[in-house]
Design a protein that fits this description.
Elements (H helix, E strand, L loop, with lengths): L1 H14 L12 H25 L3 H27 L8 H18 L3 H30 L3 H28 L1
Helix pairs in contact: 1-4, 1-5, 2-3, 2-4, 2-5, 3-6, 5-6
Length: 173
């Protein structure tokens, strides 16, 4: 139930906002901001998990998320600086940020095994939604070849994150 709810929230935020609605094509500055925001969300979740997680595999997963998402966001910032592009806040990035704040507050109320399970379930759902948005909306909509390449690299990394989260979730049951 929790995983389905998290996946639904993330999918709705990523795929149904006006910026990504059917037929609407986000601009490269909007795509850059959405991708960066998605990374920041997972960085914040990983930091929370580093403080609250009890299971060693969950802690290790959170460390991986922190390292990888910080690295991808660093590359994204370098690229937008190189291209002299200002990432553009938009309805999708705003919705993602709002829902992430709500999710962090919800997870903050949990402790021990309940936190570990909820955090990892959310990570599975979140990566599924982000990967779908990258594949179906963001990568196809990107005009700049370097941005598209960075998104494709990110997708490969995030698909690995999803598999890792699914493995950790299976071990927690």
């Amino acid at each position: 139930m929790f995983v389905r709810w998290s996946a639904a929230i993330a999918a709705v935020a990523l795929l149904s906002s006006p910026a990504l609605a059917q037929g609407a094509k986000p601009s490269d500055p909007q795509i850059a901001h959405i991708a960066y925001t998605a990374g920041v969300i997972d960085i914040n979740a990983a930091k929370q998990a580093q403080k609250k997680a009890r299971n060693k595999d969950v802690k290790a997963f959170a460390e991986d998320m922190l390292r990888d998402h910080e690295a991808v966001n660093k590359q994204a910032l370098a690229l937008v600086k190189k291209l002299n592009v200002t990432p553009e806040d938009n309805d999708t990035s705003k919705a993602l940020s709002k829902q992430a704040s709500e999710k962090l507050a919800e997870l903050d109320k949990l402790d021990g095994a309940a936190f570990d399970k909820a955090y990892v379930a959310n990570e599975v759902a979140y990566h599924k939604a982000v990967n779908t948005a990258l594949e179906t909306q963001l990568i196809p909509s990107a005009s700049n070849a370097e941005l598209k390449s960075l998104l494709q690299t990110g997708l490969k990394i995030f698909q690995g994150h999803q598999q890792h989260a699914e493995h950790v979730a299976a071990e927690l049951k």
